[in-house]
Amino acid sequence: MKKIILLALSPFLFAMSLPEKDLYQVITAHPEILELLIPNIETVSKQNRLWIVKVTGNPYWKTAKEILRPIKNLDIRTYQANDNQGRPANSNPEIVGEIAKLSQSNIKNDIVWLSSYKARNAGSPENRDAKNKISDRLKNLGFQVSSVCYQQDSCSLIADLPGQVTPSEIILVMGHLDSVGKDFAGADDNASGTAVTLEMARILSAKNHKRTLRIFITNGEENGLLGSTHYAKKLEKEGTLKNIITAINMDMVSYNSNGLVEIETNSQFESLAIKYSELAATYTSLKSKITLGAWGSDHVPFLERKIPTVLTIEDWQTKTPCYHQACDRPATLNFDYALEIAKLNLAAVLHFDSQAK
Description:
Radius of gyration: 20 Å
Number of domains: 2
Number of strands: 16
Distance between the termini: 47 Å
Oligomer: single chain
């Protein structure tokens, strides 16, 4: 029976060997109910957002196909960064100066504003109103803004700041605007990711950049990654998808009890995730965990098309207890944590922009 042996580099704290045959990745948001849906299922591993199960019966019926994905190249790792006591000597003073401009109150105010809509589900009047107000704000910051619609009245926003050296190279920053539609909720999922994206846009708009910076306010994430999948396919068809040098997704970045940020990508881009963990150690108070095996958010359509992409998300093992519930409101959130996520991703954008030739 074939096994995958993981050679963990220090400081990786978790490595394991598992038989490849008959293993599946869980891609449902509610893996805890798998036993009720599929008989003869055995949980093999729970590592952050990546659940691995073994199915001893026949998994090929409709429900199983929707929530399980066969594993061909199993690779599960968790990276634990240091405690970040003090700022490492190799920090970039320019990046330190820029992240100091981030405003926690701006992030909080936008989360409160977006949560004040009765519902933000894709296609709703409230969702369209929020999208239009965000569009106006980004235009006022100097971005070139356009809409990309995956269906009538369900549109995402694209906002560009053209690069001054290599404008054909793009750094993409995204967060989904839509919620599951609970009344006056969706604060963490994902008003938080949208709010941090907007605060990053404010800082980034005030200076020139080598590469083009693209803000992607996505829609339809909760309905099956509709907006991000549509856009990735559109760019692929146009032949411009390869221009994205790296992409950052922010989803659920404001609830935390342990100072951990989960950095998720596929094993092909492990080195990118490690760079993010180094940036977290250099510029934030966060500790990092890496999950290799992406699912369930807008980074996936880009990863499936081999674009270097990461998701930053709150530690999934201690995620908000109000996930997809009516209690997902601003009063439950940790805005200090949201600011640290903003620091990490702003530092990442500035770092990757500085690498342009």
